[in-house]
Amino acid sequence: MLAGILFSLGLTSLLVRRDLIFVLMSLEVMLNATGVAFVAAGSRWHQADGQIMFLFILAVAAAEIAVGLAMVLRIYHRFKSLDVDTLGEMKG
Amino acid sequence: MELAFYIAGAVAVISTVLMLTRMNVVHALLYLIVSLLSVAVVFYVLGAPFVAALEVIVYAGAIMVLLLFVVMMLNLGGRAAGMERQWLTPGIWTGPVLLAGVLITEVVYLARGATAGLGAGAIAPKEVGIALFGPYVIGVELVSMLLLAGLVGAYHLGVHQAEKPEIQHDADTHERWADASGDLVLAGTDQPSRTP
C-alpha cells in the first residue's frame, strides 16, 4: 500500500516534472518504493529473500544514479539547459 | 508498533509530495533525504534492521551526496554564496526539520521499547548474509559486474566531458579557416580588378 503510493508519486513526478535532476530523483523514489514492497513481502513471510532483493535494487540504484548524473553533467555542458523539452531533438 | 509504521509511512508520503512540489532543487533534495530516512524507519519497523542501516548509508549518504555535488556544480558562478544564503532561510528549514523530528522521536521510542518486527518477527543480518552468499552468489557476482560497469560508464562520460571543449575549439578553427579561405578568394578576385 505504502509502496504503491510512493511508486505512483514517483511515476507522476517523472511524467510531470521537466527537469532532469527531478527525473532522477523521482526514479530514486520509484526504486525505493519497489524496495519497500520487497522488504514488506519478505517480512510478511519471514524470508530473507526480500532483503536480498532490496540489496540488489540498492546496487542498481547506485549505478544508475552515477551514470545518470554523469550524463546530466555532459548534457548541461553541451546544451546549457536541463529542460527535457528542449533536449527532445536527440540529434547530438 | 503498527502506529509507528503508519507514522513513518505518512512522513514518507508527505515528504515525497512536498519534494515533488518544490520548484527549487535544493529544497527538493532536503525533502528527499527526509523521505529516504522515513523509509529507513519503515524498514526498521518491518523487522529489517540491516536493510534500514544500508538505506541510511547508501541512499541518504552516498546518493544524496552525489546529487548535491551535481546540483552545486551546475550552479557554479559568482552568485553562489548569495544564492545559498537565500535558499537556506529559516522558513525553508522548518518543514524538513519538523518531519525529521517526528522520525527521531519515533526512533527513540522504538529503541526504548520492544524491537520485534511488524510481520512475522525480525530478520537478523546473519540470516540475510547466509542467504546472500548461499543461494544468491550468482546475483552478488552480477551486481558486482553491474557496479563495475556503472563505474566505468561514469568515468567514460566524465572524461569525454573534459575533452569536449577541445573538440569544439577544433571545429571553431576549421570554420575560421574556411572564413579565411573565403577572404583569400575575395582578395584574389579583388586583386585583378585593382591591377589594371
Instruction: Count the DSSP helices of chain A.
Output: 3
> Strand-residue fraction of chain A?
under 5%
Architecture (CATH level 2) name of chain A: Orthogonal Bundle
Q: Which CATH class of chain A is shown?
A: Mainly Alpha
Rg value of chain B: 28 Å
The CATH architecture of the largest domain in chain B can be given as Up-down Bundle
Rg of chain A, please?
A: 16 Å
How confident is the prediction overall: mean pLDDT of chain B?
70
| CATH class categorisation of the largest domain in chain B | Mainly Alpha
Q: Which fold does the CATH topology of the largest domain in chain B refer to?
A: Four Helix Bundle (Hemerythrin (Met), subunit A)
Mean pLDDT value of chain A:
73
* CATH topology type of chain A: Helix Hairpins
Q: How many β-strand stretches of chain A?
A: 0
Shape of chain A: elongated
Order of helices and strands of chain A: HHH
Q: Give the ordered list of helices and strands of chain B.
A: HHHHHHH
Give the N-to-C terminal Cα separation of chain A: 42 Å
Question: How many strand units of chain B?
Answer: 0
Give structural notes.
The complex is a heterodimer of chains A (92) and B (196). Chain A is mainly α and 92 residues long. Chain A has helices at residues 2-16, 20-44, 49-79. Chain A has a single domain, classed as Helix Hairpins, CATH 1.10.287.3510. Chain A is elongated and about 50 Å long. The termini of chain A are far apart. Chain B has 196 residues and is mainly alpha-helical. Chain B has helices at 2-20, 25-45, 49-74, 80-87, 90-112, 125-132, 137-194. Chain B is flat, with a radius of gyration of 28 Å. Chains A and B meet through helix 1, helix 2 and helix 3 of A and helix 1, helix 2, helix 3, helix 6 and helix 7 of B.
